What we know:
Helices cover about 25% and strands about 20% of the residues. By secondary structure, the protein is α+β, with helices and mostly antiparallel strands. It has 3 domains: about 5-70 and about 190-245 and about 475-500, D-Maltodextrin-Binding Protein, domain 2; about 75-175, Dipeptide-binding Protein, Domain 1 (Dipeptide-binding Protein, domain 1, Alpha-Beta Complex); about 265-470, Dipeptide-binding Protein, Domain 3 (Dipeptide-binding Protein, domain 3), CATH 3.10.105.10. The protein is globular and about 70 Å long. InterPro entries: Peptide/Ni-bd, SBP_5, SBP_5_dom. One of its GO terms (biological process) is peptide transport. Pfam families: SBP_bac_5.
Amino acid sequence: MRLPARLLPAAALIPTAALLTGCFASSGSGQASADGDGSGKRIRVAMMLPPRSGLSPLSDDAFKLSRWSTAETLVTLDEDGDAEPALATEWKQSGKTWTFTIRDGVTFHDGTKLTAQSVVRSLTVAATASPKPRILDGVELTVKAEGDTVAVTTGTEDPLVPQRLSSPQLSILSAKAYKGKTVNPVGAGTGAFELTQINGTASATLDRYDGYWGGKAKAPGIDVKFVPDGTARAAALRSGEADVVEAVPVSQAALIDQDLITEVPMPRTNTLYLNTEKGVFKDAALRAAAREAIDAKTIVKGVYEGRADVAEGLLGPALPWAADLRDGTVQRAKAGDPDGTAITIGTFTDRAELPEVAQTLQQQLQKAGFKVKLDVREYANIESDALAGEFDAFILSRATVLDSGDPAAYLYSDFGSDGSFNIAQLADTAVDKALKKAADTKAGDARRQAVIEAEAAVLATDAAVPMLHERVIQGDAAGVVDVAHDPRERELITIDTYVK
């Protein structure tokens, strides 16, 4: 059992704090002046995960480039997931083709000009990569320059092309980024900060790019340190070694001045998936019995120390429109009597809280009359069994908004009859119909309503019992101004961020 944070001795943090001393010494070339209207101080950032692919935008490293405001995409997303202009100023659809007008007056960090051909090059590299960026998985996409516009054509009519092009994995870089065997973003972006140095998996340095089309950043630069150890990240905030800290562990949050931490709702739901195809939970009445037995409030309080939100549906507060659109009319089966029925629940160790969640669920379900066995392994060793339906139930922490910023893809993947991640083995005509409607509806209010209707159709089957929505705890030192708190983890240091 994990020792509560408040009982950890403060002395236990000293070694990791000492290891960080001096690790944020500035190595950038930016002038320590106030000519960006800030204080002239560089921003020291402690990030959780080191680069996995040398900061190639074709990998998940792309989200780091986005969070540092160094690489940009044609469009961005607003709070509701609607597309807004970035490197493209406007767009229009004609059947399978979307035409984007490229912003004039943009230069890359190497001084070259952004053109329609620049966009074609970056998007074509992404579309023909092996493997493709996740956002283009299953998508046939071709790109052609037409004057100062770019025509993006898909194999089938796709209402979400602008949202897809907001993915940091489709960042637009200058020609120099593509000269080697891998895509190298150093000095090749268009953002407010130029990436000037990558030190393997240890650190990165960025300097303000004064030619940024959106105006001059307030801070002269960013010094990034990759600190996988959560205790060390928390210690860096407590000691003043870092200005901004990603993902402070729940176990450390109580040891930090609460004015220095912000809990950001994540588009991630902790859900119990029930096997609807075979075994105990093929019976809808027993699925209902499992749902009624679960006390999510106890899990939030005991495992997450109150730093999570009890789920009202599959989509949580990171999607602020979801709660407003629900009407509370989901019709579910009546609960049956478990009567000592034996079930096996699987989960994984990679997320520290999940084994504890499993233990709590075991107690709750046994109290309701089930006999519960747990199977807990590393994710790499359990995923194939989960997807094959080898468990009666499976506990999963699942991102509900994937790269397009749209939850329809997650719902289809997890609950469509031919969904690629259908752990619940669900095959329901009403669900499939609702999912298709959501996928085919144009972006905007109508699509959001269709998504909520699809969520209701899934919940009516009790194939999945959403328990809680996770939060990420971000640490910001007292002098930090206007750092972003982004549920999608696309923004962190912006043009307006600086240290007093």
